[in-house]
Amino acid sequence: MAKGGIYIYSGEGRGKSSAAIGRAVQMATTGMSVVIIQFLKQKGLEDSEFLRRLEPEIKLFRFEKSGENFELLPEEKKREEIVNIKNGINFARKVLATGECDLLILDEVLGLVEKGIVEEEELKNMLESREGTSVILTGIRLPQAICELADEVSRIDTVKPEGPEAVVNERRH
Question: Which domain covers residue 37, as residue numbers?
Answer without folding.
Answer: 6-172
